[in-house]
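I'm curious: can you give me some protein's one-letter sequence along with its backbone structure tokens because I've never seen that pairing?
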Amino acid sequence: MLAYLECHTTSYQYYQKLRRLTNPAFPDSVPNRYAELHWVKRQWQNVKEIIEFGFAHNGKQPGEGDLAYFCAGCPQPGINLPEDWKNNPEKWKYHCSHRGDGCFSQVHQEPLTEENDIWLKSGEGFMTEKSRYAEHLASAEERKDLITCNKH
């Protein structure tokens, strides 16, 4: 666990190291427990956030947005945007932009099955509350963008 925490390796790299340490001669003979390790890592990160934001041992439950860090770089009206930013001819520079990977897609973030879609948070951090997200999906129109990445 020290290698994961100090070296900031991915959980998959940490899992591969555990397999090699468990059976150096035949690491492929070690049972595949990567999914369980990855799930425990997500739970650990969630507990760590709850502790960092002060909700650990006081009986309080985090509310919507309570587990989100303040981002000084994100445009926020009344904080780091000028009053007339909507009338500015260069208002494009005040918009947030989100990118997934090098192909500008986030298809690898979609769960393969419904039972694998486990919500550890429901509106507390940057994650949307589950019922509001379901309402959005019901009314949203999906656009298929042309993928220009060579891997697809």
The chain has four helices and no strands. Residues 9 and 117 are 24 Å apart (CA to CA). The mean pLDDT is 79.
